[in-house]
Design brief:
This protein has 455 residues and is of the alpha+beta class. The chain is built from 13 helices and 21 strands. The chain has a 5-stranded antiparallel beta sheet, with helices on one face.
Length: 455
């Protein structure tokens, strides 16, 4: 895992075609403009600059030592000659600082101060995050499975919490992607780079809010022209890629993209050029994860969740981040990892003597277990919802010792050795514990069967 020390992410693949409604004329003054420019600012003399750790479209991120408070900070600064004399870029810069500063949440890095250097360059400082990007934290390729996937989902839920909080304040992020998520050295998770965040409504009060925090309003910030396209095409929702109106469901689409990436290692609209990615985003074209990853089974329920969040039509997606989190949390609590299969009444599910390659967890319906003795089929027992059969196959791969037939319409979870390893991590100590118990059980079962066959 490559270590990085970074602030906001490099924005080389971020499209930004914004033009404010006063473009072409004189920009508003600081006293009447859409962004409240600070009256008193730091001059930056207390900052001991060290190195540039990231570069975006119009700004660089430096590390620096704050000599006043003896702490290391990240400093985002307008690049000399690329915004220092540009009123539009300067307004955007303060817009980002003000939005981020008003999002007081554990998973959003706080802004400390804004200022102007003696040479006239504008800057703001924020918490310096020591750690890795989400992409680096998940390892090479980004494809997660087994325990790694579960750890990735824990990080994902923390990102969701940050997005849900921002939505409660009427703010959209609009550029959620693995590179904009930082994982700290001690498990901290931060959603970074609010540079293209947008205010879409008033804050929504909650019981936990005071009157002051519930009335946060950023209406003074610069509005965007209709038709504006801003964001990263590989992760954009269709309406965002078309420059149409966006809302909370636009961010939900990008969160679905994070799930998709955890499953496949790819962005939803990955292609060879940004133009092609933008077209894919406008079309809402997303290839199902199961068609991207064909060398191993994927958890079907998580694929369903990701594709629901990635629906082209906003009204078919999750309507709130909390609903998406509920489904992911339910998946993580178990059961949904395995593929669901259905059988008609009378259908033979497993056949005695056949090679065993899977087990089943009965979730609805009734089955009968039968064995053939002296050419006559005899019922051994009836299975109800919650029962498991064929479990010996997971550990031994031996021929089936009995047949199982559906008595009613049946739904069951299909459990293979591979999916069990994905779900439990059989290479970990807990998995080895399960294997040891299973071996004792199967050995005892064989002894009992041998005893039954003796005259």
């Amino acid at each position: 895992m490559a270590k990085t020390d970074a602030g906001p992410e490099d924005a080389r693949k971020t499209v930004d075609l914004r033009m404010p409604d006063w473009a072409g004329g004189a920009p508003p003054s600081s006293s009447t403009g859409p962004v409240a420019m600070p009256h008193t600012v730091s001059r930056g003399a207390h900052l001991d600059f060290q190195k540039v750790v990231a570069s975006g479209g119009y700004a660089d991120v430096h590390t620096a030592e704050d000599q006043h408070l003896r702490r290391r900070v990240a400093v985002k600064m307008l690049r000399d000659g690329e915004g220092n004399d540009d009123a539009i870029e300067r307004l955007r810069f303060y817009e980002e600082a003000q939005i981020t500063a008003q999002l007081d949440h554990p998973n959003i890095p706080p802004v400390h101060e804004v200022g102007v250097m003696p040479d006239g360059r504008h800057f703001f400082t924020m918490q310096f995050v020591r750690g890795w990007t989400f992409a680096d934290a998940m390892g090479d390729g980004g494809v997660a499975s087994g325990n790694t996937l579960m750890e990735g989902l824990k990080i994902f839920l923390r990102v969701c919490e940050a997005v849900a909080f921002a939505h409660s304040k009427g703010i959209l992020h609009r550029d959620i992607k693995p590179e904009n998520v930082m994982v700290g050295r001690h498990g901290q998770v931060y959603l970074m780079d609010w540079g293209i965040a947008q205010v879409v409504g008033q804050a929504r009060p909650s019981e936990a809010d005071t009157q002051e925090t519930a009335q946060v309003s950023l209406d003074h910030l610069q509005p965007e022209e209709p038709g504006t396209v801003v964001g990263t095409p590989a992760w954009m929702a269709p309406e965002q890629a078309r420059g149409a109106a966006v809302d909370e469901r636009t961010d939900i689409y990008a969160l679905g993209g994070l799930l998709y990436w955890l499953l496949t290692g790819k962005a939803p609209h990955q292609s060879t050029t940004m133009a092609k990615e933008l077209k894919l985003a406008r079309d809402g074209s997303v290839q199902p994860p199961q068609l991207v990853i064909t060398d191993r089974p994927l958890p079907s329920e998580l694929c369903r969740i990701a594709l629901k969040a990635l629906r082209p039509e906003p009204h078919f997606r999750y309507q709130a981040v909390e609903a998406l989190m509920t489904d992911v949390d339910a998946f993580m609590r178990g059961g949904a990892w395995f593929t669901s299969v259905e059988f008609e009444p009378g259908q033979l599910i497993v056949k005695e003597g056949d090679h065993a390659d899977a087990a089943y967890v009965l979730t609805s319906g009734r089955c009968e277990v039968v064995k053939e003795r002296d050419g006559v089929e005899q019922r051994v027992r009836v299975l109800e919802a919650g029962d498991v059969f064929g479990e010996t196959a997971i550990f031994k791969g031996s021929p089936r010792t009995a047949s199982v037939r559906a008595l009613t319409a049946v739904t069951a979870r299909l459990v293979t050795r591979q999916t069990l390893e994905e779900g439990l991590g059989l290479e970990a100590w807990t998995g080895r514990f399960v294997l040891a118990l299973a071996k004792r059980f199967t050995d005892l079962e064989e002894q009992m069967e041998d005893g039954e066959r003796k005259p």
